[in-house]
């Protein structure tokens, strides 16, 4: 499964590093000095009680190649539409798109950009870019909320979990348009 993470700030950088550390096929997309630092030395994660570094396959968004199975957008909401359009040639009808941008209409923005399967989501994490190539994560808060079809969610389980028993399923939580199932997913454990 090919995973793209667009935007390697506090959220995307931490997710991409965690996925890479777990051996998943992940490509991160970044720009500027942050991109150059990660290309040169990998991404360094600084947490409260530990620090770790992992090599990461990282590119400028204009250098994307092939089709991705899952694309996670971790950009500011005002950049979401533009970022999605940049990735359009690397997404097909079977791709799963997920936005961890701030805001409440991110799924609608992604649906308007391309013909792919979109999940609504949000993430709980305290993290930021400390310096180019370095992500600072604070505290123990680290969870994500996804809503959508069970088939799409099961693909995300393959990314986030070694044991699907870690998933808590909540029924009858809805928003307009209606989402039948929402999953609270504690993310990768190190």
SSE order, one letter for each helix or strand: EHEHEEEEHEHEEHEE
Number of strands: 11
Radius of gyration: 16 Å
User: What average pLDDT do the residues reach?
Assistant: 83
Uncertain runs are 162-190
Give an account of the 3D structure.
The chain is of the alpha/beta class. Helix content is 26%, strand content 36%. The chain has five helices and eleven strands. Strands 1, 2, 3, 4, 5, 6, 7, 8, 9, 10 and 11 form an eleven-stranded mixed β-sheet that branches. The radius of gyration is 16 Å and the shape is globular. It starts with a strand and ends with a strand. The relative contact order is 0.18.
Summed up, what is this model?
This protein is an alpha/beta fold and 190 residues long. The chain has helices at residues 10-21, 32-41, 80-87, 106-113, 150-160; strands at 2-6, 25-29, 43-46, 51-54, 57-59, 70-73, 96-99, 117-131, 134-147, 168-171, 181-186.
Offer a few descriptive terms:
alpha/beta; single chain; 190 residues; 5 helices; 26% helix
